[in-house]
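The data are quoted verbatim here:
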Amino acid sequence: MTTAILTRLRGTVRAAWQIVRGVVGENAYERYLDHHRRNHPGEEPLGEREFWRRHVDRQDATPGSRCC
């Protein structure tokens, strides 16, 4: 395979992986940090552990249409 094809394939796989991460919610903390940076400058964001604790607690309190 040529280098161009491998580079393109790598980019496609990387993009697909980001889509999968978004669907399963794995990138929620990254999105939170981006939101926090834009909307709450000067305030300390939650640490990743505290963020996930609150995220899971919120989902448990309001399950909505989750499958499980």
In short: DSSP finds three helices and no strands in the chain. The chain has one domain: 2-61. Residues 3-24 form the longest helix (22 residues).
